[in-house]
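Our example pasted here:


***
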Amino acid sequence: MAVYFDHRIEAPECCEVPAHITWHSVLPVLAVTSNSPTTGGNVDLYLQQGEFVEICHVDRPCQPALLRWHPTKPVLAQGWENGEVLLLSHPSGDQTVLPGTHTAPITLLEWSSSGSRLVTGDQAGVLAVWKMDARGRLQGNHLVKHEYNKALTCCIFRPASPGDDIALLARASVNGDENALDMFSWKGAPLKIGPQEALTFYVSTADGKVHRVDEHCKTSVLFSVEGAIQKLFYLGRREVLAVVTETLMLSQYTLGPEGGAQELMKVKLSSKGGQNVDIVWTENGLLITATGEQVIRLWDLERDDNYVLSLDETLGFEKGEMINCVSYCAGKEILAAGTSHGRIAMWKMVVQQGSSRGDAKASWKLQTPTEIQGHVTQLQWGSSLNLLAANNTASVLILCEHVMSAHFSQQVAAVQLTPSQLSVTQFSTGTQLALQSDIHVKGVCVTKDSVTVWNGKQVTVYEVTGAGLRAAGSFQCDSTVLAVHGENLYTVEPSKVQVRTPQGTVKQLLNFSKTEGNPLLLSVCQNYLVVGTDAAHIRVFDLSRRDAKAHCGAKNLAEQIANLGALRSVKCNSNGSQVSILISQVNGRPDQKVYFYDVEMDTVTHFDFFTGRPLSGISQPEESERQQFQATELRGRCPVSHFWDESEPRLFVCETAPISSESSSFNHLDNVDVSVVTLFCTQEHGLLLQDCYTKPAGLQALLALDVPYYYFTCKPGEKDPGSLEPSSPSSSSQSQPPRRSSASVAQLPHMVSRRALRDFVGLENCEKATRDAMLNFSFYLTIGDMDEAFKSIKLIKSKAVWENMARMCVKTRRLDVARVCLGNMGNARGAKALKEAESEPEPEAQVAMLAIQLGMVEDAEKLYKSCQRHDLLNNFYQATGRWQQALETAENHDRIHLRTTYYRYAKYLEAMGDKTTAITYYENSDSHRVEVPRMLQDDIMSLEIYVNKKKDRNIYKWRAQYLESQSDMDSALRFYECAQDYLSLVRVHCYMGNIQKASEIANDTGDRAASYYLARHYEGHDDIKQAVHFYTRAQAYNNAIRLCKENGLDDQLMNLALLSNPEDMMEAACYYEEKGIHMDRAVALYHKAGYMSKALELAFATEQFSALQLIAEDLDESSDPALLARCSDFFIKHSQFEKAVELLVAAKKYLKALELCVDQNLTITEELAEKMTVTEAKDMSEEARKELLESIADCCMRQGNYHLATKKYTQAGNKFKAMRALLKSGDTEKIIFFANICRQKELFIMAANYLQSLDWRQNPDILKHIIGFYTKGRALDLLAGFYEACAQVEIDDYQNYEKALDALTEASKCLSKAKDSSSGQQEARLADMQHRVTLIKRFVQARRLYDESPVEAVRICEGLLEEQELDPAVRIGDAYGFLVEHHCQQGNFQVAYRKLEELQKLLPSRNVRYYVSQSSLEALQKAMGVPIGRDDHEDNVKEDDEVEEEELNPESQ
């Protein structure tokens, strides 16, 4: 809670009427202009408490026109009505007058963003641009001067283009920002440096023109509007220039990159214009105007929205109060407005969850006003967020915001109400006192006997005497902090702590070395004083003796805590063994940890609220689910304040806020989620979480901890709902007006509220022994030592204490302890409920039941949510009457019970009399068809309306039944018809005697129930024919069959039996058989009913062969084998062999079936063969099975079904016969596949032999398989023979001796590797083959050598002709042909002719053309002149004869 101190400026006597005020943007310096009708005008500077800076006084005989501060330096630019422009420096008071450029009143002063340029303008339209150095001093004459001939009204510099500001990055790097450091380092991305300052600006004139002046000071007209321009604004996000004229016409222009402008929007603002309009522009796009009306108007240019803010009379404003001026503080997000009745209204921007800033009017919350009297004409927020200057035409006041001081000690609490008034509460006596001080209080410290206040310059001590306060002493002291112990006061000065008397006399000095630093923080707890210094050192002093003694040496926390910037707060416990510390980091942000210094062990530990856990090295009991859940609640927070209990040294409390909120400010903790965390701190067990809960909304801030209470400050007029103090009407506010008033005791509000600790709810007034026992119980329960916990409370008999401990067990989730507590309480119902809850698998659900029994409904709700037992949470909400939450839970999480929830809520609404809403939820639960008519049965009119509205068949039926019960049969029939309930229609018509109508309904609708009812009716009236008909319509065939049997309706009986089930068919068949008539029907019914044996027996007995045919078609392997055999014999007898075979196979008489196939030459199909293939060993032995399969295969072979034979041979395991069958089939692909699968030598050889019979010369794949199969079958001699055959083919067909040589070479290799089993034949064969290889090699060599050495080639060839066994290897004709060709080419035709004659003698039956080319023969014949064609003619004649023979042979055939 904050209060505003008012400081009226110490204006000199010459300054009469303040006219204009302006704060420096960085420094707390206020400039004020004043006018005097006699002396002229003045400009003065004042500090933040209104101190007059005399050296900076400026006066002139004319009036000051304008003021503008340098953006960073303490230099004030002043414009006067005589055209003079003056630069005033603070605090030196140096004055620099700019060269005389202007002669008319100054209307324009504007600095560039960094202050290197100053723009001045006057009413005559003269504009000048001045250059300044880094200190804000003038450099030479003006850079440029423009004359626009119209009064200049506004000026605005265009912001620099986006880029990285080097100064900001450097400052961030020094503060430890890693991202900024990366941007400077070589590792980061290239640094995009934007301009440090934009020098382009826009200036407006009174005739509505806007001129652009670029960085080279060249001017151009940008655009013009109607009327004089009053304000210029720049929207940086959209690069839009906004213009507001004196008539409040708002225009927006988009700015092009080359200096052009285009109108974007134009709108008239709904306010009255004039000279007194105050217009404020905010960076987030809000345009705020105050025009002397009762409202403030806001235009959101970013979202194109507008709304108004008005004053609230309930907060102290008066009717008809006008708003004159506004000022917006972006840092605090507060809008301040000055009124005509001397009040300052403030609106705080509140961002609702799930919305963004500026969304709607509801985002602004009006605060209680501050009163300064007079007529407020101007407001401006200062450089510090806590300063606000106000001009009320009589004087200027500086309002300084100050957080209200408060302190608690020894059951006495003091809270500041106004700058000089405090409320003092003595809890031991229940009295409340008012303290009115003569100073503005900045700090207060209380004990049971005294109240001490100070303001940083003066200290005043008051004694508590009876029912009042008496001043005991006052002295001057510059100490900013103060502590009190007994009659001693402790103040600070550089390097010392002073021990003073209440009158200010120094009794003792506690000195600090230069290394330890200057004392800044003081805190007293019992007899111990802890001091924190600016060098991050702490010292603890023992105050129990006359003089303060050092309790421990100085501790340098900077050595123990990383990233320590400064100490924020230090507190010690009641025995001086522990010191808690809050710090700020190097970058100025508060640290998320609370540090604890153990004085005896000289160690520092911490509790980290960012993770919700203590330091990992601290000893802790085994972590439970409860601790994990509480750690989750604490995560992401930051400590705000901390306290130790005044008597219990182990108990520590800390106030925490979310990190997002603490980063901005701690002054508005009432607006954020603040938690109060209690810890036990000991050497043995470290830091143990004892409790954590959210601070109630009515409380302001934690003040102290004194078992059994927490103490909080609270807002005036509000209190904690759980506190015991009554609330008084409030006459004060959060922001009090800075005026002094003496409030009586009766009018003081309660500013302090107490809240009992969790373990002491209901035990606030217990004696000290019980209090200590409860503390020990809580401590031992927290560390998990149950033995010690029970020992500490074993002597307690109070049921209230046991109930309180049971409540404690809800927080600690110790159900074992809770059972003992419930037993000592005598709460049998709670014990039973807890016992039943043990069946729930989640511990939280069990604890929630305990909380319900103890009335802790909020805890139960949290527990059910934490374990996600939404079904139990739903029941909990229903039991507590929170139906809306129950419905939300069921709809979002517990949909399996959604309809049940709707039904129960409808029941509840019905009980409450809200039948209209109940109908809706009965419909949602899908139970409205019964429940709604039941609920409305006493309201006939509403029921009729509902029934006709819903048009639901079930509701129609309910209504018809109700009317039938009332004997209104006609109406009942009408509603039954609407419900399409044909059974009821037939029933009512039969009751009324309308049998014909009932029959029509049953026939038309075909409703089975209606037909059955009508059939029963006809049967009762002996109308058998109609009864059978309607039983048939109802598909009640057994009843129809019964009537047919009883009445001899044999013809209808057969049809009905066939429509019915097998049991009815059996009964009908027995009926026919007993009567001995229609035996064919009996057989058919037995067959249809599935009684095959009975049907066959009866068919054989009565010789019904046609029926036997039908029955046999349904027989299969599941039928009786004897029955199958009997039928097969029947079919054999009647020459139906195929059907007989099928039945024999079904009877598993495979050999007989096979024999029948062979005898009757029946083709064995693959399906029949598969049926005869036995798969189960129990049906036949393995040997018999193989024999059967081979028999089937043999039969298939005889029938030419080779593939099926192969399959059966394979199943029988006889792969040799399988291969033979495949070879007969001639299926080459399957032969190759089967050989590769079986991988047997014999099969490989068989396959290869078969493949040789094919055209392997034209198919390389077959050739490859032949070689492969012979190789795999290890038949190398056969492979050699194959190679030999290949060689002969190459010689005979192609005369290719090279390939023949290769084939014979491979053949000799294979033959040499083959095993010799023929007693020497293989060696002779190998020798002969090698001799042939030699001959072929010689012939091949001769042919290759011919091109190089023909003589040598001829010699080799003639040598070959001398060989005795040449012809098998080299054909003689090829050798002679070689020689004839040679001699013809050489021209030796005589020799060639002789060789040709030798060839013809050796081979008289051969044609020489096979060996000698045609060209050589023609050349030889021409040279010799001898005809060589005689033999050729004979050969041709022979060939013609052979052709004729071939032509005649077909005719002879």
Summary: Residues 1321-1345 form the longest helix (25 residues). Residues 616-626, 661-670, 724-746, 1430-1453 have pLDDT under 50 and may be disordered. The first strand starts at residue 2 and ends at 8. The two ends are 132 Å apart (CA to CA).
